[in-house]
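Exercise 3.2. Students should predict the tertiary structure of the chain below and write it as structure tokens, then compare their answer with the key that follows.

Predict this chain's 3D structure.
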Amino acid sequence: MDSTDPTIYKTAFRQTRNPAIITDTNFIVQDVNEACVDFTGYSRDELVGDTPLELFSEPEIYGEMIESLAVGEPWVGGFETTTKDGRMIYGRGSCVPVRIDGELRGYAGFFSDLTERRQYEQSLRILNRVLRHNLRNDAHVVLGHVDIVADELDDEALTESLATARKRIDSIIKYAETARNLDELLSQRTDPSLVPVRLNDLLRNKLDEVRERYPNAEFDAEFGIEPAVVVADDAIGTAIDAVFENAVEHNDSSVPHVTVRLDLEDTLVTLTVADNGPGIPPNEHDLIFGREEVSPLHHGHGLDLFFVDRLLEKYGGDIWVENDDDGAAFKLRFRTVAHPDGEIDGSSE
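Answer key:
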């Protein structure tokens, strides 16, 4: 079979399942595949000989594509298109220059329909926001009534029971806030806001806060002299809070003891947060980060560590847990900044 037979390429193009268009160097449509005809509702004759502009609901997006292609760069982006029968479709498009023997001969564009996915994500986001809002409001109302009843009680056992209820309600409110942070994190497809952060300074601030929050716990720190400048953003403070709180809240020792250490190696920094608690069974190491589904036989540690795991993935780092004779040690690995000459933020919250 002659692999250079143009019929093969034309047939493959026509039968590609994603809508596709080929234009000449002046962006005049020369051919469209069957999927494009079915998808848009326009016939091949209606599309060929015209520019694809009519398929773009936002002309400025079309302009951005033309600008990229005009300088020889491929274009990728999201855009909306309107079908012949008036339906608004959202998706992701890509367009590349087509060169033969070094000569520009035209452009090829492809489209993926993400309308249902977008509608699902938008609906889920709205539902999450409403649920979090109602959950916080109702929880604060319950807390108010708990406090009223507690003030009127002289029974020590009942007062202690109400204190337990208050603690649980506080946890529910905290879960709602963590869910909001997680939703914001996962909704960011690309984030150019990662900046250099002085991890040493941030840890000192966070240790001051956690010592005040848990006066009965002990915290030791070993940072060294060399500054640890890592790639992160404002959410790093929330992640460190979560790991510190986890080391105390799940600690069954009479005096929770937490050791915080920084280790620098080439282009990586490892933050270790070790405790003297009960440790974590090896078969639950992935479970606590939300990497496995919770079952009746295994339980996670809530949303906090799930959030930290996803955040470290965004940073290009990692998190894992190790057990020793004294308890559990959480390891957070960050990428360092090769040349930290730009803005350095040591106060991320």
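Discussion points: Residues 294-300, 339-349 have pLDDT under 50 and may be disordered. The first strand starts at residue 20 and ends at 23.
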